[in-house]
Amino acid sequence: MIEKIKALEVVARSLDPEPASRALLWQQTQDYVEDFLQDLTQSRAYRKADCPQLSELEISEEGKLMSEVLDIMKTEIDHAGINATSGGHLGYIPGGALWVSALGDLLAAVSNRYAGIYYASPGAVLLENQLLRWLCQLVGYPTTAHGNLSSGGSIASLIALTTAREVHQIRSHNVRKSVIYFTAQMHHCLNKSIQIVGLGECICRLIPVNQNFEMDPDLLRKQLDQDVSEGLSPFLIIATAGTTDTGALDPIDEIAEISKEYGTWYHVDAAYGGFFLLVESMKERLKGISKADSIVMDPHKGLFLPFGTGVVLIKDGQALVKAHAHEANYMIDAYGFDEISPADCGPELTKHFRGLRMWFPLHLHGSQAFRACLEEKIFLCRYFHGKIQQLGFEVGPPPALSVTLFRYPSPDRDAFNKALLEAIHHDGRYFMSSTLIGGEIWIRCAVLNFRTHLNEIEGALQMITDCLTSVQLSSNGNG
Ligand SMILES: *Cc1c(COP(=O)(O)O)cnc(C)c1O
Prior knowledge:
Elements lengths: L1 H11 L6 H21 L6 E2 L4 H5 L9 H12 L3 E2 L16 H13 L10 H18 L6 E5 L2 H15 L10 E5 L5 H9 L6 E4 L10 H13 L3 E8 L11 H11 L2 E6 L12 H4 L7 E4 L1 H4 L7 E5 L2 H8 L31 H10 L1 H24 L3 E2 L7 E5 L5 H15 L5 E5 L2 E7 L7 H25 L1
Parallel strand pairs: 4-5, 4-6, 6-7, 7-8
Antiparallel strand pairs: 1-2, 3-9, 8-9, 10-11, 11-13, 12-13
The structure holds pyridoxal-5'-phosphate.
The site of pyridoxal-5'-phosphate has 14 residues, from helix 7.
């Protein structure tokens, strides 16, 4: 048996490279990263491409060379589709990926601290709880509030709605009389959450929006009155601080007052807009957020972190724990500590130590850099909104945050703007996405990548001018 164990050990040890081969892998990875980052200013923000080699690549018994793997990574992964790290990414809600976050991720993977339970890694849990404290202060929550760093806004929303369901004791006997209020601009991850947490049988009321795509508080109140008079129970109001489609801000403060009056749970989806609280001039417009019972924010949007970081904050921290904590026999050693463990605040037990990717950039860069970067995005979007009109485009409402809608007022408007968007995608220097408003196509310019500066906005305007000319030429040719 000893012989067998020793033979297996020889092969098993290849999983733990010696310093010399570690140095080689390290160097190759570093070279790749430097090439990637230095190439960003020239590389396209979007490239339509298939991945033929990737589908052919099989996992072999002996393993491959790093160079072979990195090669596929470069051609088939990092140069196909949307480049989320590019300052030219102006579609959807752009992501980011701060460089020092990557260092935090690397360290989290190397040391592999168990961030789910205080007993397993007090430092990791304390670090995450301190980040949550900072976030609670940012939104104006009391010290009794708590939250969870999740993988994204969708899972964060799931945690918020689970807590709302438990606090309001929505059960089979009352679910069909419980009413949820939101607008058609609400993010679809909340429709998903409603289903997943067992609220699918609630009555859902779509509250109309005004011309700026903001929830109409008077119509909300009217609907609530009608529901109460019919013997239904208003349960949950969901407002959005920065809608994904148009960047609109619902009247958060006014809705907070209504929610209080009718005794509902008040959830604010600030996945996109929440971090604009860092910008002094936005504080007044967002201030009602402190009155929400639960808030979702996405650091992988507004704090420019790599994908995989969302946040839920619950004003009543104990309610969050009560809705999620469960005990297990094999976990008895972990009980009896004062510090709240992340595992008691959401569906995950074992989880990525994602706090580090947020902790490093906040400590290394300081909050001033984030403040400036976010305020810059607001001004860049306003600048775009003005300039695109000078090029003859119609626009949506003045940007409340950093999204502008635009389209060209051509006779066959939808077909023309569709062709224009295709030309933009074919060009690919800057990436933009589209949406349907009242069934009609609008192109969106969303400014949130930390590498988007004036140079990129000027470049995007130039690209649109070029694409407009080519679409006009070809449509004249066809006509
Ligand atoms: C992005 C977004 C979400 C969903 O968050 P994910 O991180 O993609 O899961 C929810 N709400 C709004 C307003 C968003 O912009």
